[in-house]
Amino acid sequence: MKNDMKKKYVILVIILCTPILESYSQQNNTVNTIFELFNLSPAGCDVSNYEAESEMSVENFSNQKKKKEEKGEDLNVILEKYTSLFKRSNTISEQFEKKSEPIVTFKNGTHSFKKDNKYGLITASGNILMPAQFNTIIQSGETGFVAYKNQLCNYYSNDGNKILNRDYFYIKLTIKQSLIVQTEKGFGLLTKKGKVIIEPGYYQIEEVDKKDQFYYWILRSKHSGFYLSENTKDTIHLNIPPKELNFIDSEYWYRYGNLINIKTKKRVICNGYNIEVLSAKHQLSSIKDSKTKLKYLMKHNGDLVTNQPFVKIHSFRENNLAIAAIKKDNKAVYGVINHKGKWIINPQYYRLQFLNDTMLNATNINDQSGIITVKNKNITAFEYSHIRKINEHYALSIKEENKLVRSDIIDLKNGKKIKENLPYYSISQTTKCDTETFIAKVNRQESVLNSKFKTISPASYTRVYYGKNNTFEGTNFLENNKRESQIFNCDGKLQTIKINKKKYDTFYNYEEITPNLHHVLLSTGNGYFINAKAQAIENNTHWQHIEYSNSKDLFITMRYGGMYGIINSMGETIIPPIFKFISAFDPKTKLAKYNFDKKQKGYITVDGALLFGTKYVDTELLNYDLFKVKNNDQFGVLNKNGHEIIPVKYSKIWLNGGIIYAQLGKALKQFDLMGNPIN
């Protein structure tokens, strides 16, 4: 009997001690790194085999299946009817056009000038430092500029002295005052005084300046590159273009769910785990277990901040806190952790959202919402259905009962109600007016409130949009695709327009193109341009968008359905809406890109003529007043005068620096900017 009792006692002791022993064992077996947790190599992986998933594109035309291109209606004939309308008096044009600035200008007043389509350099007092002799001139900082004579260029100081002892096809001054240059052998790197840092021989060199880090992105070929440090002593063999990389800090880069340690030149995690950067300041990331879908908080070097598995971890805010969730009873419950992984607010809420750095919107297990502090102190009672942030200072607390909405505005400084029993379902701050204004929603209607949350809009509308300057557009959508709009300012005053001695304040559509040119479309379907003389010029086209063309007093118009045309400041039609697309005129080239019928694309000059007529089905600006043209899926290059410098016979053409690449089959040729072959 005694032996039986003794055995039972031993068994009981073992049973009672087992959890303690297991707990002690777990504590001693606590893992410290993500490598231990997932049985990964702490050495990381070489980045040299970390290939880019998307290639860097240089060509602008896609390689489509060959087909014979049919030309549509002769655009030359059509445009001849309208070209004369492009002529506008200088007096009218000067009211709209910005005075063109010199391409090159320095603080001492020295600047470039243009004469006979050539560029020179002149002082502020009018002394010519360099006569007009350059085809192209490019500003390069405050101390110098790059200028081309025909196909070659050099770097010049701001007093007109040539710096380099030879000419190049391409020169670019970097922010580190080095010079990226191009010869017939390829790209290289010089000091500003011309000393060779990297011998020319590469396909391309670009400067990369991100997060106070500077590198050279050096391409051996079009699709193979690496990074070189500013001092050119440290190489990172990472074949990923800069646009695909996030430079977190001087030690880590990030791309597509993985971290790269720049000092070790290794990927931190080798296998297919998804990493999300949560704090650059504290070098914190989350890593997701692909099997359990749980996340762990880690330092960028792989050290675990905590062994706690999370369902979700949000990014850390400036207050060093983040919302995080764990699983409890098969549901996610939310709390707040600090950057050391410790719970500041224990996980207990079903929803949690920062309203600002000190206040949070919390929803409890009974699906009731309230406002709490980061110390988990209640600011409001948990009696609301929803809480929505208005801005950093206010929140809208909403009660919904039997589809009836009653809301309070809470001051987030002290938790006090500054407005009670409002009918609004949401309030959002606008970016209009000199004082705070808000758009409030109730029963599918919107209105505008002032800084004291009082209604200033003349009525409620289906939607309230931003108008030009400090105005709003209130629109009601009616049956049969009809609508009515009103324009009002920050005081709620309605915009009125007088047409044929009758005042209107309600429109189908209204647009202020300039302070002196408006277009209105009345609910009757009648449309008018109202010009500076208050004249109403009838124009019944349903315009969806009108913008300044950057030339004279001309405006690009787009009607509903997407067809483009041009009008002038008097509301007169210059070109009816017959184009698929017309861009604004480029201030430098004085050209507007057009797409006529998807078979005819090119440029319109400021005089209303087609650049190169309709000889080519597609035209694209390369640079340096050179254009790639296309016919029957073959490409060539023209200068601005229309002279063919590279025949239209190549399958691909692209510009790399100051050299034109032309491909025909497997053969690749190089030409300078004058069209001369380069050996």
The low-pLDDT segments are: 6-28, 52-67
How would you write the strand order of the largest sheet?
Answer: 1-19-18-17-16
Shape: flat
Strand % is over 45%
The rounded Rg comes to 34 Å
Q: Whole-Å distance between the termini?
A: 106 Å
Q: Which class do the helix and strand fractions yield?
A: mainly beta
The average pLDDT value, as a whole number, equals 89
Helix percentage range: under 10%
What is the count of helical runs?
4
The number of E-state strands comes to 59
The major beta sheet can be summarized as: 5 strands, antiparallel
Describe this protein's structure.
The chain is mainly β. Among the domains are: 102-252, no CATH class; 350-428. It has a 5-stranded antiparallel β-sheet, with no helix packed on it. A hairpin with a 2-residue loop joins strand 9 (179-183) and strand 10. The longest helix has 27 residues, at 2-28. The termini are far apart.
What is the gist of this entry?
With 679 residues, this protein is mainly β. Helices cover 6% and strands 45% of the residues.
Keywords for this structure?
679 residues; mainly beta; 5-stranded antiparallel beta sheet; 4-stranded antiparallel beta sheet
Q: Secondary-structure map with pairings?
A:
Elements: H1 2-28, H2 34-38, E1 45-46, H3 75-80, H4 90-94, E2 111-115, E3 118-122, E4 128-134, E5 136-139, E6 144-149, E7 152-157, E8 170-173, E9 179-183, E10 186-190, E11 196-202, E12 204-210, E13 213-221, E14 224-229, E15 235-236, E16 246-247, E17 252-255, E18 258-261, E19 266-267, E20 274-279, E21 284-288, E22 295-299, E23 312-313, E24 321-328, E25 331-338, E26 343-349, E27 351-354, E28 359-363, E29 369-373, E30 386-389, E31 394-401, E32 404-411, E33 417-422, E34 426-429, E35 438-442, E36 445-449, E37 463-466, E38 471-477, E39 483-489, E40 497-499, E41 502-504, E42 509-514, E43 517-521, E44 527-530, E45 536-538, E46 543-548, E47 554-559, E48 564-568, E49 573-579, E50 581-582, E51 591-595, E52 601-605, E53 618-623, E54 626-631, E55 634-639, E56 644-650, E57 652-656, E58 659-664, E59 667-671
Antiparallel strand pairs: 1-19, 2-3, 3-4, 5-6, 6-7, 8-9, 9-10, 10-11, 12-13, 13-14, 14-15, 16-17, 17-18, 18-19, 20-21, 21-22, 23-24, 24-25, 25-26, 27-28, 28-29, 30-31, 31-32, 32-33, 34-35, 35-36, 37-38, 38-39, 40-41, 42-43, 43-44, 44-45, 46-47, 47-48, 48-49, 50-51, 51-52, 53-54, 54-55, 55-56, ...
